Amino acid sequence: MKRRNFIKSMVAVSAVVATPMVLMGKEEAAKAKRKGPNDLTYAAAVEAITGGKEVKDSQKVKLTVPEIAENGAVVPVKVEIDHPMEESNYVKAIHVLSTKNGNVRCVDVMLTPANGKGYFATRIKLSTTQEVVGLAELSDGTFIKAAKSVKVTIGGCG
Amino acid sequence: MAEKEARKSMIKIKPKKYKVGDIVKVDFIVIHPMETGLLKDKKTGKIKPAHYIDNITFSFDGKPFTTMKVWETVSTNPYFSVNYKVTGKGKITVDYTDNTGEKNSKSKKLKPKG
Questions:
Q1: Where are the domains of chain B?
Q2: CA angle in degrees (0–180, nearest 5) for A155-A158-B4
Q3: A119, A120, B42, B77: which one has the fewest Cβ atoms less than 10 Å from its Cβ?
């Protein structure tokens, strides 16, 4: 009995000691992997943009991305916002974000009524299969967004 | 910077024919490496430092109408497209800076017909 108990306790102790170490190793590895200069998670980026305000999914935001991107280094993104561009009521900003890149922010575009239409297009890099988010800020302080997932065959973030 | 020569860049106005009051597409393309700071140089084995465009300003006759904050997640040789409502003759200028402090600008005349 004594021997059995001793072995049991040893196993338990080793398990307790070993698991955090393994976890630590994984976390460190993940940190070492991501060492870009501007790393930021998706939740933090959205909060930095909106300041904690609610973001609604909206049909007004038309996001055009390919369903499958063979090359993650060049993914065309087009954001169109069906909203008037008048002096008192216009699209203030368009933000292009991705959900799983090292740095999720891609471009923050500040628009003015002189643009005539809420439209922006660019090409971005995606590391893995993930969602691309078009987030728009209207002049009355509300935020609307649309998200679409893109399947990436070869990652393009290095 | 070591590379003093001006970067190749281009502004395209689409469509080619436009009138006052039309909304045109202003496309801006620049030849730039957009290094993320994550890739290794295959020859030397050293990590290439981050080098990307971080600020772009589109202006018409000196009045900025669109400003952008750009991160390294944008592709190599980036392309940016915005709309602009033509108000008359003038010059569209795009100023851009990158994270190493390099400054450049490119401009194109707007000639509405009719």
A1: 9-110
A2: 125
A3: B42
Residue A59 lies in a domain: yes
Go through chain B and tell me how many residues it has.
Answer: 114
Of A102, A106, A158, the CB nearest to B74: A106
B86-104 residue pLDDT tens: 999 999 999 999 899 889 9
Residue identified by tokens 């800020």 is: A137
Q: Is the predicted ipTM greater than 0.90, yes or no?
A: no
Query: Is A106 found in the same domain as A84?
Result: yes
What are the structure tokens assigned to B98, written together? 């990158």
Residues from A contacting B (CB-CB < 8 Å) are 35-38, 73-75, 85, 98, 101-112, 114-125, 156-158
Does A158 sit within 8 Å of B36, measured CB to CB? yes
Number of domains in chain A: 2
Distance CA B68, CA B108 (A): 19
